Amino acid sequence: MSYDDNNIFAKILRGEIPCDKVYEDDYVLAFRDIAPQAPVHILVIPKGKYVSIADFGTKGSADEVKALYAAVAKIADEEGLTDGGFRVIANTGLNGGQEVPHFHVHILGGQKLGPMLVKAA
Ligand code: 5GP
Fold it and tell me: Is the CB of residue 90 below 6 angstroms from any atom belonging to ligand 1?
């Protein structure tokens, strides 16, 4: 799948759409999800054009990959999630329920999150 420059996170990265930013460095932007599913729900995205975690893991540089994980750890700590625990999700592709085709991880926390998956019928 090729990268779509018109996806919503590409527009956020270009400053065409506002976001509630919580963190930024040379490689990463993080902002609050517009439809939070937990008391803390933050999206962490690379600034590079990667469609999915598979694309990022294959083509991302060591600096980019390190920066994303470091940002997750830093944000979780700043949001007070480290001690109580939290969840990181990377929905991928059709079966994974990925809606926005720019790689992102969700940081979810602030309460007990329950089972990892609701069993499919
Ligand atoms: P996905 O299903 O692709 O893993 O998650 C996409 C996430 O992006 C959803 O949780 C959705 O609420 C969030 N989202 C979609 N559009 C926007 C937006 O314009 N701003 C923000 N902050 N979040 C968005």
Answer: no
